[in-house]
Fold:
Amino acid sequence: MDRKELIAYNIAELRKYLGLTQSELAEKLNYSDKAVSKWERGESLPDILVLAALTDMCDLPLDYLIEDHSGEKLKPENPHKRRNHIIITLLSVALVWLVAILAVVIIKMASQFFSSGWIIYVCALIASEIVVLIFNSIWGNTKLNYIIITVLMWTALAAFYFIFPFAQPNVFLLGIPGQIIIIFWSTLYFRKNKKQ
Structure:
């Protein structure tokens, strides 16, 4: 079996291990089921990012795809990898809030006239959304990124409106073209990946 056939065979085995049909795997990877079928027949190969995403789903190293595993039972490296990613993300968000609370406490102790602690909490909310976006980009589902970006944009506009006294309600009109851009960007991204 040559290298291309071996990779094709391993892709099919990983799909079966995950208990997915070709169309279900295609949906998870944002590709068409025809593309997955071609990969499994060895007619074409996906790019390295798709191969990495596939091995990540099975908690396997990327080089698993280029090695012969006939007769071996598939064993994940770390069965708790997904849970660990969620815990790391939540700990990072908790750290953002800890820093915000400490900042409010220290500033209130230093100045008794400080009454705008809520501004720090609003900034912590925005920072938390950025942290979630970063970790979701690394480990999560890319479809969620567009929802996170949407929430982040509207939160930032609301924060600007409430923090700055000179801000007019018209500031929310900036969200309309921003939302249109996010929708078109996500549509183009998923169409491009589906064609591949």
